[in-house]
Each structure stands twice: as C-alpha cells, then as structure tokens.
Amino acid sequence: MVLHFFFFFFMFAYKPKPTPKPLLCLPQQLSSLDQIKQSHAQIIVLGQTNNGKLMSHLLASLALSQSALALHYSLAIYRSFTHPSVFVTNNMIRCFAKSESPRQTITLYSLILRKIDAKPNNHTFTFVFQACCKALALFEGAQIHAHVVKLGFGCDVFIRNALINFYYGSCGLECSRRVFEENSHVRDLVTWNTMLACFVRDGQIGVAENMFDEMPERDVVSWSTMVMGYVQNGYLEEALDCFRAVTNTGLRLNEAILVSVLSVSAQLGLLDRGKLVHSLVYSMNFPITASLGTSLIDMYAKCGCIEESKLLFDSMRRKEVWTWNVMICGLAAHGLAKEALKLFEEFIDKGFAPASVTFVGVLSGCSRAGVVREGRHYFKLMRESYGIEPEMEHYGCMVDLLSRSGLVDEAIDLIENMKISPDPVLWATVLGACKLHGHIELGEKIGKKLIQLDPNHGGHYVQLSGVYAKARKWEEVVRVRRLMSERNTNKAVGWSLIEAQGKVHKFVAGDRDHERVAEIYKMLELITTLVAKTGYTPNISSVLHDIGEEEKETVIIEHSERLAIAYGLLVTGVGDCIRVVKNLRVCEDCHEVTKIISKVFEREIIVRDGSRFHHFKEGKCSCHDFW
What we know:
By secondary structure, this protein is mainly alpha-helical. Helix content is 66%, strand content 4%.
C-alpha cells in the first residue's frame, strides 16, 4: 500500500503536468472503503490535503464505493473544498443519489445554481435524475427537465436515457415513451435497453418483443432484459426459448441471464436445463456470487437433488441471509425437518437475524414431518424472541401441521383467534383434514362455509364432494357437483411434467395427445398387471362419481402422474431416476402405486407435487405416508 501511495503521490503531486489517465484509474484502484481511508491518511501525513486533484479523486472513489458508511465521510471531504469544481460536486451528488437520502441531491443541485461558479454539466443531470427517480420527486424532476432544455442539454443522449428511467419510476410508462419517441435520432443502445426495460417492468411483454425485434443492435443487457421479463411475467417456456437464442449469438452471458434461467428450471423442475446452466458457469469461469450460488442451490433443491444443494451450500464462502433461507426451505420441502431445524440453529449461532421467510421454512419443515411439539415451539419463538408477527404463510403451516396431525379443534381455534383476517385457504386445509380423519359433520359445515365465502372457487366444491364421497353419500356428491356446474366454476386441471430426451413433456389425466400414446398406455397395462401381483387393491375414494368400480379404477389409472411415470419408464435407461413435477397434491392411490412401481421396476422416482417432494425407492416414500 505504501508503494502504491508513493507512486500515486509522485504522479500527481510532483510532476509539473500530470496526465489525466492515472487520475481516472484511481477510483478503480481504491475499491474498498478501508483502502480509501488508508490513502486519505497518507495524504494527511504528507500534508497534501490542499491538493485539489488528490482530494477530488479521493471523493470520486467514495462515489463508487458500495459501503453505506461512505456518505458522511464523503460529505466531510466535500466540505473541505473552498471552491468545489463541477467534477467534485457531481461526485457528491452521486453519493447522495445512491444513498438513503436521495433528496439531498436536489438540495445540492440547487446550491450549484445559486452559489457555485461551476455550472452543471451533462453528468450532473444524469445523477440528479437517478436521485429524483429513487425519491419519487416528480415535481422537482420535471423542473430540472426544464433546466436541461434551457441550458441546451436537451439532445444529450445520456441525459435522455436518465429521463426515460426517471419518468417511468415517477409517473408511468407513457411519459417515458414520449421522451423515447421525441428526437428519435438521439438514441444509443442504452436508450433502447432502458425503454425495453420499462415495457418489461410494466408487463407489456408483447410490446417489448416488438421493440426487441426493431432494435438496430442488441447486447447481453438487451437479451437479459427479455429473459428476465419473460420469467417475471410467467412466460417460462418463452424465457427458455430466449435463452437458447442468446447462447447462439456468441455473446458472453451475464449473471442476470443465468439467474433467470435457473429460476425457470427451479419453477418447472427442469434438472437438465439447470445442469446446463451450471456447466456454463464453470466453462465461462464465472464467479460464484451470493446471488448465483443461491440460485443454484434453489434450482437443485426444487429439482429433487437436495444432496447437490447441500454440497453447494457447504462450499460457498460467502452466504447471505437469503442463501440460508433457501437452504432451510429446500430441506423442509424434502421432509428433512431435523436437518432444516439444525441448520436454523446454526444460522442463529452465526449471528444472523431470521426474517419472516426463515420461519416459513422452519414451520413448513415441521408441518411436512408432522412434528407438532417443535412447530409450536418455533411459532412461539418467532413472536416472543424475534418480534416477528405471524403472516398468512406462518398460520398456514401451523394449521396444516395441526390438521393433518389430527388436532383439528386446535387448528380451528388458531384460525378463530388470528390477529389478521383468515384466508379461505386455511379453512380449506381444515376441510381436507376432515376428509382424512373422517369428520364428516364438521367437514360438511366448513365446506358450506367456504362455498359461501368464495362461491366461484371450484376447489371448495371438490373438497366438499370428497368428504361426501368418502362417506359414500352419493346424492350429496351429485348435489354439490350440480351446484358447481350451475355456478360455472371449474376444478383446477391437474398436470404432470417430465423432462426427457431434451424436451419437456406435459400430461393431463386421460391424455391421448402424446405422440407415443399407444406405447404409454401399453406400459400402463404392464404397470397395472405387475402392481396387481403384489396384492395391491385400488383406493378409489378420490373418484367423485357414482359409477361402477371398474370405471373408477380406470379413472385412477389414467391420472397424469402415472402417465408421466409410464413415459419415463419407456424413455429412460435401466436404473435411471425418474423425476416428475405435478401441480396438485398427489392422490392417495397414486402415492401407493408409485411406491410399488419403485420396487417392482427397481427405480427411484422423485415426484414434486403441490405440497412437497416424494422420494420413492424400494417400495417406500421419504414422506413416510404423511403429506
């Protein structure tokens, strides 16, 4: 550091005509706040605090610092200038713009106009508009826009780019569009990217696609904006298509694209896609940042590879709070409650402060493992030790835990004493438990209450029908189904996904649209025959129709997850793991059959349903039949 300083000092303090190049390199060299303070101390020791060039570039380094402590330090240095130049003032404005006090930027800008000899330049306005956007200072920003025009900066492309972003953040898309469309000759790639991002953030994906096609040139930011836009707006398959397209351009991918595609892979359970991204990270020698590492952990956990997630987590040098949260939630989703709770205790021991989502992971782990005592403990701990008021997700975990453990009365008591208005989902959870534990009268009461609360929700009718069907009250089943039809409500369609041979295959119950449908149903026949030899008897209680037993068995056999598993047995190698993602909770019969399939065919089958992960192996499931 001493050698570095003397090189720096002689370049600027003793050369009669210092060149600007080393000055511009200084902010990059002094990357941390500690380094900046060390250099400042050396400047003081050598009596160079009056050297304007040294001090101005010290302030420039602070303007680039990511430390939240840099603001007051920067202000102290700025006040040491008797006649601050526009370069010095711009850097102080930049410090304010990125701080938690962005409105101070406007005050300082006003000071430039009134007291400082150096007039604002184009850099001044870009930082000021950033601050106005952050502070939602529409009125002040519009006034400063008038100054831009008055001072002759109206055609400066950097200012126009800042204006597009400012107006979007302050008053919406239309104002940004007007700035973009006027002076169409004053645009660069950043202008197009900024406007593209505005359309994406506004959810106008179709317009964004048209603009993307019209762009005279594109860079990796253009592509990452589209990929993120697709993901954020739920167009997951389009995001994958866009990712495939950008990989063919030869551009070096950025972290935003990688994280976005990992998010898609996690949401859809596409392990092969996620592994492809992971291999790209290694091949590009991409640094494993906290964001990228956390996304990889999340992807592997949600694709059923929890061991891979644990290895990545253990290997990460820098873990943020949300890294721990993702790992805790991942363990919980796989039913590894003991590991999730142990990791939580380690998280606390390391001095991290748990957030609301941390306890969602902890309580969901307790729920999926059916550990009531621990669930009660952490629910109490959340409020009494950390001052976190329960939100709907926390209540949902506790109601689910109590209900499925047979403590229906305690679950109802918890709902009725909530400090916030209960979501109908909580009552639906209790209704499911009434069916499971045979509380017909209570289930009937709650079912009717749910239908009154939300008469357009088809799931409530289906659940109430299930309660009646289990009690073999077919007249009531027909009545509820007729009521459901009259009110034009529909049950959520169940589907199952399986990734195989480079494609994603989607099945619904009774599907006949797949190109290999004949082979799939032939495999289903083989499965049915082999499973029957083990002594299995179909559980047809979930079929809510008063039809013959044989017809009910046929309906059960054609559930979407069975079709996906049958296809998996066709196209994967002997001994390969079969991975299925289902949007709804797997039914009792399919759960039992999948256990038997895993033993008969000697395959591991991993199913991610709407509730949790099920690892089927050698005739057993990781959930221990508690889900």
